[in-house]
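Can't attach files on this board, so I'm pasting raw text. These are the components:
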Amino acid sequence: MLNRAIVVLLAQRIALAMLSLLAVSVVVFAVTAVLPGDAAQEQLGQEATPEALAALRAQMGLNVPAPERYLRWLAGMFRGELGTSATTQLPVGELIASRLPNSLLLAAVTALFSVPIALTLGISAAVWRGSWFDRVASAGAVAVVSVPEFLVATLAVLVFAVQLRWLPALSYVSDIESLGQMLRAFAMPVLTLCCVIVAQMMRMTRAAVIDQLEAPYIEMVRLKGASPLRMVLAHALPNAVGPIANAVALSLSYLLGGVIIVETIFNYPGIAKLMVDGVSQRDMPLVQACAMLFCAAYLILVTTADVCGIVANPRLRHR
Amino acid sequence: MTSVSTSGTFPRPAPRCRGSWLTQFGVVGVAGLLVLAFWGLAAAFGPALLSRSGAAGGGEVFAPMSAAHWLGTDYLGRDMLARVIEGARYTVGVALVATLLASGTGTLLALLAAASGRWTDAALSRGLDTLTAIPGKMLALLMVAGFGSSIGMLVVTAAVIYVPGAYRMARSLAININALDYVTVARTRGEGTLYVMLREILPNIAGPMLADLGLRFVYIVLLLASLSFLGLGVQPPSADWGSLVRENIGALADGGASVVVPSLAIASLTIAVNLVIDNLPGRAARERGAR
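---
Top answer:
Structure tokens for the assembled complex are below.
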């Protein structure tokens, strides 16, 4: 199935992603550690004696030129030495390790729910395009996409926690003892994220399937008398798998933006909350590590989307 | 800054020759325009009109809607209507300046890339691609961590995040125009790069870039509102609509107006811009011309 053309293309995509990550690391380091100016000066204030300033600079390693500091920082990242948090004095690695499983769980549960819902909605909207179902679903998706995530979250709290009283408004993962409690704690964050992701994914899936349904071979399938169900499932979908997988991976990358808002509003102890707290306390080592983690995840998802497109393209398979 | 003044000379769609434009917008487009005009006026003149009406606070906290306080009061007992109108200045104003800066810089760089040689083009394109490899909100958090969140920095942050998008759009348009005969004629005539950029290419990509400007404005409004909601955007005592939702989140438990109204204000602004763009007269014609 994999021939040389595909392998070469895949290798190119992956090399490009690695290169992008390297470029991203330069930007992250420049924005957080070089451009803002002298961190030692800021920590000690304007009245600091020159001796104290020089001592702190030496302690923080600021007396070496920026490119060298960048290389040391990058090498540290590769070895897993992420430095110590400026506010809590704990190793950044430990902080992240304690929060990462929570965020991954949230992302996994969201993906588990949103992918099937979005695919069903997207494919149905494409098949019955122009119908009232399609119009309602598409208009709903546009509405969700064009308002901020925190608005969706606020509305969800208003409806499900305040009006209907089905769910608690905040989630605290620490006091979970049973499966029922876990479901209740997860419900609001997952629900909000699902709304955002489903809207994105549905729009893209719909576009991908419509693209196939308007191809000439579908006309042929219809002319030979195949049932609509068979036309969609046996003929259109196999060809739309690539674009759909692409859409799924790309939409999941919206999780990264959404999770920042959702973890903050629901007080969910995940990695994005950790980063937002780091930003408000200007805890640079923590912010750098979290940012690199998020950017790596983003690049992995975007590259996966490309890879899905390449592998599923039948034209490349029979070259 | 040159970039700002360049984009400032683009004709804004609304005010010019209103009569003939309005009929072409359709009902939905006009509704969008009215909402935009309302928020524009609120941002420009609202605070001056409201300066005397009890914005100082001290009244009942989270009061419901009443004749005295049309939209109720906030978590300090301040009049919510006054807060929302003051917030319009930050939400609309900051986003507008940032959008003009982003689109202006993006367009200018794109013109430079299209009109000068291959190396400038490649260097600019690769450099800006790097920025798109960082998710927008993540870059915003990084910039705030590095440079703080004064109003000026927020404008710069939002502009930096959306320059690559504007650049990519403008570049694809400009490259096509650059290949046309009249540009070659201008070059043969001995015109410099700057002349070709500004007099030959710019007028022909201005239309589609205006529609793009509207979309970028929506993205920037959403980004700034999200930042303020996280407490990393506009800092107290100033407040944009995102900060208003954050401040009054306590009213959520009883569905108070003070948390719902700013949310609705954001939604009305972004949806209105979308409606206006979708109903822009002659949009199809302009896109055909751009191709």
